[in-house]
Amino acid sequence: MTIKTLDCSDLDRHLGKPIEGARLKDPIGNLDIKRWAQAMHYPNQLHYNNAYAAESRFGKLIAPQSFAVACDDGHGSAPSCVGRIPESHLLFGGDEWWFYGPRIAGGDMIHNERIPFDYAVKETKFAGPTCFQRGDNHYYNQLGDKIATQRSTSIRYSAEAAREMGGTPTPDAMQDPVWTPAQLAELEDKKFEYIKALHDLGHGKRYWDDVKVGDKLPTRVIGVHSIASFTTEWRAFIMTIWGGMRRRTDIDLAELGFTADMAGKEMDGPHEKINPEQTDGAYIGPSRGHLFPEWARTIGMPRGYGYGASMGAWIVDYLAGWAGEWGMVVHSNCNYRGPAFTGDATFMNATIIDKKVDEEKRHIVQVDFKMASQLGTTMATAKAEIQLPVR
Questions:
Q1: Contact, 373 vs 346, CB < 8 A?
Q2: CA dihedral 159, 162, 166, 167 (to 10 degrees)
Q3: CB atoms < 10 A from the CB of 98, how many?
């Protein structure tokens, strides 16, 4: 078997140069926030219960910290997917987030400034020469307040090499696991343990003084994943709503090198006015591999699989929920090892590994995070810093 050399020669001319961003057409609404919380499986009442949120320190409904990624197109991958790599596919490799304090709420108009950062080509077991490309997203509100920076990593690889090296998925791999009623009931009980922890903290403060190195956060469970749950997640991204964005004019998926069968017209502004079902990413284009198993197998996946941006949101939400409304995730560096597949469940755990007062005099705990399937397969890892109040 001969593995092609990956042609990344076009990438250098884009590095450090801002690229065009999509823009919201309408202000953020409370229903956008509630839809996001529901789609990300995050039952924190700050983000969907008006009466509860009114009694909070914010005095109103606010968006989860993870919501910034829903306010532009491309899941944050746009600046990490510039330049042509012929006959390639793309997966999400990770996200590093810095949060600065301002929260998103109904009425806000969020915009994103995007700058390609760097790339490196490495040898991988699943596709041979593989490009790990990074780009920065800077999210601001209408007042010019900086909300967050997201440094996104895209994994770009030869479609042919991935199919050759991965081979044909086995029949077992292409089938969803079967859960017994007893197992599903146990899963729901585990989910509620995390939800109960949110309720128990309520509007109270989780003090930095009271937590210690070695403390474990409560386990968070999501799943069983399905095409229906992935579709719900996809439709919570504002970019997937017909007419939801002023589309970029500088994007051409075929020109980026996506294989012809996956390029499509996804997020194509002019075409959206003609036939929007071909542009919203659900049915045609590179994103359809998530929702259609036959197209998932085209890019080397055995069956329907979840979104990297959703995984990133799950992580930030998990940590922010533990911190409570008086705390905040200030930094998170997430590496994605493998997606959520249909039929699987996702388990999140974290341990406090350090406590400190940083250079900005913030009281910080650092956590070590791991996300795994019910089989123990690692899906993501992260290190994160969380600011907590002090007594």
A1: yes
A2: 40
A3: 16
The answer to whether the bond into 211 is cis (omega within 30° of 0) is: no
The amino acid at residue 357 is: V
Residue whose pair of structure tokens reads 């504002």 in the numeric block = 238
Backbone angles phi, psi at 390, to 5 degrees: -120, 155
- What pLDDT, in 10s, does the model give residues 193-228? 999 999 999 999 999 999 999 999 999 999 999 999
How far does Cα 163 stand from its chain's mean position? Answer: 25
Bridge partners of residue 367, in order along the sequence: 352, 384
Helix, strand, coil in percent for the chain, rounding step 5? 30, 30, 40
Tokens 């998170």 belong to residue: 332
- Model-level pTM? 0.92
On whether the CB atoms of residues 310 and 237 are closer than 8 A, the answer is no
Look up the CATH architecture of domain 12-387: Roll (3.10)
Tokens encoding 181 = 């009623």
Instruction: Please report where in the chains the tokens 């009623």 appear, as a residue.
Output: 181
Are the C-beta atoms of residues 299 and 292 closer than 8 Å to each other? no
CA distance 117 to 84: 16
64 close to 36: Cβ distance less than 8 angstroms: yes
Pick out the chain residues at pLDDT < 50: 1
Spell out the domain ranges in the chain.
12-387
Q: Are 281 and 267 in contact (CB under 8 A)?
A: yes
Contact between 243 and 25 (Cβ < 8 Å): yes
